[in-house]
Write a structure and sequence with these properties.
The relative contact order is 0.12. The chain has 2 domains: 57 residues; 54 residues, no CATH class. Strand 2 and strand 3 form a beta hairpin. It contains 2 helices and 6 strands, in the order βαβββββα. The protein is α+β, with helices and mostly antiparallel strands and 112 residues long. The strands form 2 sheets. A 4-stranded mixed β-sheet has the order 1-4-3-2, covered by helices on one side. A two-stranded antiparallel ribbon has the order 5-6. The termini are far apart. The chain is globular, with a radius of gyration of 18 Å.
C-alpha cells in the first residue's frame, strides 16, 4: 500500500494492523522503519506479506482502475519501477548516467 506522505505509512500500518487482528488474523511485523513497514499476515494456514511504503505521488501516467485491486499503477510506470529497482547500486556505478547503469545482477555483464 503506497502513501504519498511518509508520516502516513506508520499511522495507516498500525490502523490496518488493528483491523486485521480484530478480524482474527495473526500479524507479525518483519520491518518497521520510517516510510516502510512490512508484516506477515496469516489466518487458517494461509498468509500474505503486506508492505506499507512511502512513495512519491509523481507518476508518468495516471493510475488505472483494477477490478481486483481497486487501482494500480499504469503498465508503463510499473516497467519504469522494475527497471530502476533492478539497476546496479554498487559504488562503481554511482553517479553515472542512467543509461550506463546495468540492469542486471552482474556489473561485469555491462560496459562502462
Amino acid at each position: 500500500m503506497f502513501h504519498d506522505a511518509a508520516e502516513l505509512v506508520a499511522t495507516n500500518a498500525v490502523g490496518d494492523a488493528t483491523v486485521l487482528t480484530d478480524a482474527g488474523y495473526t500479524l507479525v511485523w518483519q520491518n518497521r522503519a520510517e516510510g516502510f513497514h512490512r508484516a506477515w499476515v496469516e489466518r487458517d494456514g494461509h498468509g500474505v506479506k503486506i508492505e506499507w511504503v512511502y512513495d512519491s505521488a509523481f507518476r508518468f501516467f495516471p493510475v488505472v482502475p483494477d477490478p481486483l485491486l481497486g487501482y494500480r499503477l499504469h503498465d508503463a510506470d510499473l516497467a519504469v519501477n522494475k527497471v530502476l529497482a533492478g539497476t546496479c547500486t554498487s559504488a562503481h556505478w554511482r553517479g553515472r548516467p542512467l543509461e550506463k547503469i546495468p540492469v542486471c545482477r552482474r556489473c561485469s555483464s555491462s560496459t562502462s
